[in-house]
Amino acid sequence: MSDLIFTPAYQLAQMIGDRVVSSLEVVDAHLGQIAKHNSQLNAICTLDEDRARQRAKLADEALARGENWGILHGVPITIKDIFETAGLRTTAGYIPLKDYIPKQDATAVARLRTAGSVILGKTNMAELAGDYQSTNSLFPRVNNPWNLDYTPGGSSGGSAAAVAAGLSPLDLGNDIAGSVRQPAHFCGVYALKPTDRRISGAGQIPEVPGMPLCIRQMMTVGCFARSLEDLRLCFALIAGADLRRPDVPPVPLDTPSGKPLQNLKIAWIDEWAEVPVAGEIRAAMSAIAQTLSQVGVQIERWHPQGFDLAKILNLYGRMAAYLNIYAQPVDKYNVRRSLQQIFRTATQGDKSLRKLGDFSRLLPELLNPSLKGYFETLTERDRFITQMDEALEPWDVWLTPVAATSAFTHRPAWSAVDIDGKSYPHAVANGAYTMPFNLSGHPAVVIPIGQSKNGLPIGMQIVGKRWREMELLAIAQEINQVVGDFCRPAGY
Asked: What domains are there in the chain, each with its CATH number?
């Protein structure tokens, strides 16, 4: 059974399809792992045990009749609690939604279900996806499987922890500021944040049900797995146009170029000058660059001209404020007051770094939003997207850190993070390496590349060209074969 719970989803699908193992056996193995470990991890907040077993039995009966539901026939998966699931509680960690049972699946969930998957349950998260840790007022905090005293990250901490600990082979998450990539880095798993608007967000919270669609940019649907093959499989299933979201363009999946590793032109950087990373992450990035160079890759340290991090983060903060201000009902959840608290708390830390994370300067605009200000912000974002498209054009991919630290110990929301003797504002430590690519809309993959001295995972972000996810995943696979692989946390 331990082999089944750490077998990639694509292999489980083949084994079930070939009737080497039954769907019920695979589901039972994962339910056993959940029963054994979830009480400590709190990664899964709503378990759908009975319906999962029932669907697994139906999957086995269908195969016996010669029927196949799809490429994930009978394969168990989990879904971040931010996506609506028909007949299954969906809360987003938000008290007013504690008893909310949707009537319809989110589009991405529906596509995974149509492909034959078996939904085990929902994974725990930060309240309304609003933190880089995974805590809320409904469920116990999520703990990192590598060390329970440490956070798995957020907001998709339950997703990353579940996949890392073998509770699920595949999980659906979302990312507006690093919510897929930072937890993958903290928990040592693979993750994809696709191009902005590549995947429909229909049925995703926020917005709270009943509110107008406000978050129309930067929020992407992504996925977690223990292999790049599974990321490719999941992405191909959920990408594409959707009648429920007419702003998702009908862009076909790209075809990878098939370039061998030695023919790639790769850019890399070990840290932004404004946000130094922990020494162990810097050393891991340098080691990757050296390894790739030794096997004949054309790799060069590179930083885009005009990449002004302070301006980028300020623009990101303005975009995020405009998108979120009306996404929740103010009478039930005072989002303005909440954002004020976040912006002010997030400035805690070393004075030399405060200017990067001092989103409190945005409060006047936040408290008095204007249509003119929103359009001006959108226009600035368009310029930044064009700038990044042009800068990345000569390169196949760009390698960067994911965050300034590896996983840190649990702490109050938005409090400072210490890095090599410096105290960093929370948003800077966790988002400075991910927010720029939500703002620009470029896809990014995270792969594990090693561990810190205290045994915590280190991941690397691989940034590609917009609308070229299949090429990005193919390149990530080439790099992964040389520099990384998933490691199982001890005790699982």
From this structure: 4-238 (3.90.1300.10)
